[in-house]
Amino acid sequence: MGLDQGRNPPGAGWRRDDQPRPGSWGEHILQELHGTKDRASQFYDAQLSGQLTPKMMEFIGRMEMAFIATSDAAGECDCSFRAGTAGFLRVLDEHTIAYPEFRGNGVMASLGNILENPHIGMFMVDFTDDLIGLHVNGTAEILTPAHMQELGRGRPGPAASPGRRPVQWVLVTVTEAYIHCSKHVPKLVPQSRVRHWGTDNPRYKGGDYFGAAAQKLAEPETGPVPIEAAEARSMCRRHQRPRALQAASQDGPPP
């Protein structure tokens, strides 16, 4: 499921017999083709909410990570990862979540997409205790830290290191939220570690782990060689004599 132009967003007490089914037209087509319409309708009725429930709000408040899905105006998608200590995802009310954007690699892919297309998908999952996930879809806008303070939503805490000071905030207006079942969620054991927030040191950022930089350095230049330069080099090779032959011609024939 996901937000798109053809989606029928739910609201509080959203489904009546005379209302269209929630979900995208693509979902509905596949449900008809594969015979899952009744099963999907049961999920929509029981699990799809147009706002955050109290249990959802508590769940979000203790998460230390979230996966963020955005797309640009052309629909090109990006999925990114956000992390922080519990509480970095802030539930402002049953319709609103805010999360900070810390200093990163400077690309700002997610924020750039939000400027073009406000639709956003968030996925949070508990890998350690309840082994359950939560999807939240909605629309996003970018706020400066100063704007968050003006709205009275910044809730400043103890002084943080520069790497943990929000550069921007993303304000998400929730349009739907639903469970991700636990049957395939792996159980992980958390371990403490030092996090180097905001660092540019390649050692702490993973370096060239996937070899992309090394591969680019190893790739030969693929640009076309100008015809004039290629012809000049060819002529030089044809007319250039070896140094030993040149020396012999200068000294005369061998005895």
Structure description:
Helices cover 30% and strands 22% of the residues. Strand 1 and strand 2 (77-83) form a beta hairpin. It has a 7-stranded antiparallel β-sheet with strand order 2-1-5-6-7-4-3. It has 9 helices and 7 strands; from the N terminus they run αααββββαββαβαααα. It has a single domain (25-205), classed as Electron Transport, Fmn-binding Protein, Chain A (Pnp Oxidase, Chain A), CATH 2.30.110.10. With 255 residues, the protein is an alpha+beta fold. The longest helix has 13 residues, at 227-239.
Overall spatial form? globular
Structural category is alpha+beta
- What does the average pLDDT come to? 82
Overall CATH architecture: Roll
Flag low-confidence runs.
2-6, 9-18, 239-255
Write the layout of secondary structure elements.
Layout lengths: L24 H10 L2 H11 L6 H8 L3 E7 L5 E7 L6 E4 L2 E6 L7 H8 L2 E8 L5 E12 L1 H6 L17 E13 L21 H4 L6 H7 L8 H13 L3 H9 L4
What would a concise description of this structure say?
The protein is α+β, with helices and mostly antiparallel strands and 255 residues long. The chain has one domain (25-205): Roll (Pnp Oxidase, Chain A), CATH 2.30.110.10. It has 9 helices and 7 strands.
